[in-house]
Specification:
Elements lengths: L2 H25 L5 E4 L4 E4 L2 E3 L2 E5 L6 H13 L4 E5 L2 H4 L14 H10 L3 E5 L30 H18 L10 E5 L12 H15 L5 E6 L2 H7 L5 E5 L6 H11 L6 E6 L15 H13 L3 E8 L10 E2 L3 E2 L18 H11 L4 E7 L4 E8 L8 E6 L2 E7 L5 E6 L4 E7 L21 E2 L2 E2 L4 E5 L1 H7 L27 E7 L12 E4 L6 E5 L2 E6 L8 E4 L10 E7 L13 E6 L18 E9 L1
Helix pairs in contact: 5-6, 9-10
The structure holds 2-acetamido-2-deoxy-beta-D-glucopyranose (5 copies).
One 2-acetamido-2-deoxy-beta-D-glucopyranose binds next to loops.
Length: about 625
């Protein structure tokens, strides 16, 4: 082997890695993760943020599979993971610490970071978790009279020593220090423990701040009942709740609001399944019930952690037990979306589909508070439209607001008319919110000199709408959430779906092939073929003129369906339904010049007639 060749390759690989890490370091100082109390949300680097997280316990998954499981979680659409840290797993004997191999929690967290997942850390010291003694080391019982989870000096001394080892390892992994950890939980469901010892919680709070700094965001989690938050919540620790799909979601979040009148709504444990006991039937939770409850939580703009996203295994002797005495089995499958063995389940796909709805388009709707018979400026003075908004009054298009580009638009309409802003997220997560809140619209909008309020917010599930209507042409406009896409038949300037089909001859060995689709005369939008979302097109801006169409989504056995969501202007003429066309070409054009009037190369393989839907 030619060693020089190997060395050359290695040094090529090393250069970008070094640059990347240097860049990472220089950016660290700008990283912040905070609560925005005035808008009931988190702020990440100053921008509104919501997490959709899943629980995975590194201590229940072989290290060999950590990356695989984390990737599958990422592919489900999660942007964060949550894990406990079991004290007894890391300090099996007093002063003997295990942090390597299967115990390498730092490596696990770094792996999540590498895969672009944020981390919610729950280091206890008590964790429950259906884990032996709730994560507390059994050697604490050498002092028989010890009162666990209280201000008992012997308990606190052991806690102080343990957290003095663990937390300094976690400090560099905090978000503000360049790592992925956004929030850290103190204790666990303390409100359901009998001791109700606030000094104990205060001690932990101080200790966490001492080791992690004052800017760390600490929180508590308790069952969604007033009595639990009474002993579980403490000023300075952000109080969150946990509840499963059977709960009354409104009532559960009202409980959180009793402790935290302002701030983000958070369900820290949304149960995807349930735990088991030896001798009892395996617990399950119906996919449809879990999916619809998750949808409801997300549609309120709440943050959520799915407990568990993958349960894993209680290897060795690590299972816990409940009282009256019922021991838990070895499997901690939990009927979670990823099975104990990491397989994708029906629940995985169903939850992924729910999560997927919270990307993409969001409709903001309110009514005009005043007559605007003269053109009245609708403004986002602080450039708060993220990232483009298609504006209509009573279904009549008014124009487009664009982040940092077009911040004022004149509109006309009568007082009481419906004002719709279809806000498109151009590449960052954007979420629905409660009435009167402004997530997605980053700052207040004004109409003349008035601030607009009382927004209703609807996430638009375009992918699902497309899939649903693949079967037939009729009834699209009777759909649930296509209101903003409604339009008078003479008007083509509102966002609208267009649908068509094309056949590929069967029996020709080389067909179908990969191809590229282009949009002559179209402006900007999204395109699906056979329900597969190919992505955005924006030939009016360029430089990309064609989108890649991989052959595996095309069929020869039946007509292929194509659906286009044009957001601004389709090339169909303004005088009623007509055919408009898209073209398939055999070469990509992603480098068009940006001058207006660019006409893309014309190399059609096939033409597809498009009917206005
Ligand atoms: C859920 O809770 C809310 C608020 O407490 C209550 O108004 C509503 O009736 C409850 N819904 C059901 C179905 O119990
Ligand atoms: C809005 O209308 C007013 C009055 O007709 C006009 O002066 C102003 O330039 C318009 N603004 C925009 C952004 O079109
Ligand atoms: C937005 O407007 C509301 C009142 O309508 C006000 O309470 C709030 O402070 C405003 N927010 C900002 C950031 O100006
Ligand atoms: C395909 O589109 C044509 C119009 O272009 C329409 O008449 C026909 O019904 C469509 N076929 C299917 C299977 O949707
Ligand atoms: C775009 O790339 C193609 C293929 O590389 C090249 O032939 C063409 O001249 C380029 N067009 C522009 C406008 O740069």
């Amino acid at each position: 082997m030619d060693l020089r060749g190997v060395v050359r390759i290695l040094s090529l690989l090393l250069v970008p890695l070094l640059l990347a890490s240097a860049r990472g370091l220089s950016k660290a100082s700008q990283r912040t993760f905070k609560i925005d109390y005035s808008h009931n949300r988190f702020l990440k680097d100053g921008r509104p943020f919501r997490y959709i997280s899943g629980s995975i316990h590194y201590f229940r998954v072989p290290r060999f599979y950590w990356k695989d499981r984390l990737l599958k979680m990422k592919m489900a659409g999660l942007n964060a993971i949550q894990s406990y840290v079991p004290w007894n797993f890391h300090e099996p004997q007093p002063g003997q610490y295990q942090f390597s191999g299967e115990h390498d929690v730092e490596y696990f967290i770094k792996l999540a970071h590498e895969l672009g997942l944020l981390v919610i850390l729950r280091p206890g010291p008590y964790i429950c978790a259906e884990w032996d003694m709730g994560g507390l080391p059994a050697w604490l019982l050498l002092k028989e009279s010890i009162i666990l989870r209280s201000s008992d000096p012997d308990y606190l001394a052991a806690v102080d020593k343990w957290l003095g080892v663990l937390l300094p390892k976690m400090k560099p992994l905090l978000y503000q220090n360049g790592g992925p950890i956004i929030t850290v939980q103190v204790e666990n469901e303390y409100g359901s423990y009998f001791s109700c010892d606030y000094d104990h919680l205060r001690f932990l709070q101080k200790l966490f701040h001492y080791h992690l700094g004052n800017d760390v965001l600490l929180f508590t989690t308790d069952g969604a009942h007033e009595m639990f938050l009474k002993c579980g919540a403490l000023q300075g620790l952000y109080a969150t709740v946990d509840f499963g799909p059977g709960a009354n979601i409104t009532a559960a979040f009202e409980i959180q609001r009793k402790s935290e009148p302002r701030g983000p709504l958070v369900n820290s444990e949304f149960y995807t399944g349930w735990l088991d006991h030896w001798g009892q039937p395996h617990s399950t939770a119906k996919t449809e019930v879990v999916a619809s409850a998750l949808h409801e939580i997300l549609s309120r703009g709440a943050n959520v952690n799915l407990y568990m996203f993958i349960g894993g295994t209680n290897f060795a002797y690590w299972n816990g037990a409940n009282m009256p005495y019922q021991a838990q089995p070895t499997s901690y499958d939990y009927d979670a979306p990823l099975s104990e063995a990491g397989d994708l389940t029906e629940k995985y796909f169903a939850l992924r589909d729910v999560i997927r709805k919270y990307f993409g388009f969001v409709l903001y709707r309110t009514t005009l508070p005043q007559d605007c018979s003269d053109p009245t400026p609708l403004s986002s003075p602080l450039s708060g439209v993220h990232d483009r908004a298609y504006v209509a009054v009573d279904g009549v298009p008014q124009g487009v607001l664009e982040r940092s580009d077009v911040i004022t638009l004149n509109i006309t309409g009568k007082a009481g008319a419906t004002l719709d802003l279809l806000v498109e997220n151009m590449g960052r997560v954007n979420y629905g919110r409660y009435i009167n809140d402004f997530k997605g619209l980053i700052s207040n909008l004004t109409l003349g000199s008035n601030i607009l309020t009382d927004w209703m917010i609807f996430p638009l599930d375009t992918d699902n709408a497309v899939r649903k209507h693949l079967g037939g042409w009729d009834g699209y406009n009777n759909g649930r959430h296509d209101k903003p896409l409604d339009h008078s038949s003479s008007n083509y300037k509102l966002p609208a779906f267009y649908m068509g089909n094309f056949s590929i001859p069967s029996g020709i060995p080389d067909l179908p092939q990969d191809t590229f689709i282009q949009f002559p005369g179209w402006t900007k939008g999204q395109v699906w073929i056979n329900g597969f979302n190919l992505g955005r097109y924006w030939p009016a801006r360029g430089p990309q003129m064609t989108l890649f169409v991989p052959r595996h989504i095309l069929v020869t056995s039946a007509p292929n369906t194509i659906m286009v969501l044009e957001l601004e202007h389709a090339p169909c003429g303004d005088n009623g339904p007509e055919l408009c066309a898209v073209e398939f070409v055999d070469r990509p054009v992603i480098n068009a010049t940006l001058t207006s009037g660019h006409s893309p190369p014309h190399l059609p393989d096939q033409q597809s007639g498009m009917d206005y839907v």
